[in-house]
Design brief:
225 residues; alpha/beta; Rossmann fold; two-stranded antiparallel sheet; 34% helix
Amino acid sequence: MKNILDLFFPKQCIVCKKEGSYLCEDCLSMININPFRYCLCEKMEKKDKCENCKNRNLDKIYSACSFNDRIIQLAIHKFKYSHIKELAVPFSFLILRHLQMVNCQLCNFILIPIPLSDKKKKKRGFNQSEEIAKIISEVTKIETDFNCIIKVKDNKSQTELTRKERIENVKNTFKIIKNIKNKNILLLDDVYTTGSTMEECAKTLKSAGANKVWGITIAREMVDL
């Protein structure tokens, strides 16, 4: 059935409309992969944490690309709101290439996608972070856990909120339902903006006994690569 649909409704690159895939090799190659890792806050110093963010629960953040990139913006929007699940493949490539460039070692980590509320997951049909996590796990053999943490509050979208509103909006959003004491966790999400969602998730994990909590995203809002 899938082959028949592809015959009559061929996949087109979301950028240049070339047939064959949703993000063709030419357009994918135009995306700049971030060769650095920055601190958690808006100062974006090239270190784990600066003085401004040293007390946060999240220990590190890795972001493959700049969210300022128009191709990345379009692709993430199509991934989430046009439900193009196949875009998980190029996104996984970008993340893996970034981790390779910054020499990130993921031994003894568990990859956990940021959960969606049941309502949002049902509406979208899938959790975009889970789809990426599946591919990364298949390539790297990193352990995954899609049921360790759940979202217990269907809070409103963070998109139009201020930093202060984002922090309030995600308070008490997550719940741990498995033993993660002394575990090292790699949280996966699509975009890192203020870091409010990932920080709240890291706080919940640390409160339940997690050891290290790192974050990884497709993109991050930044001034410049």
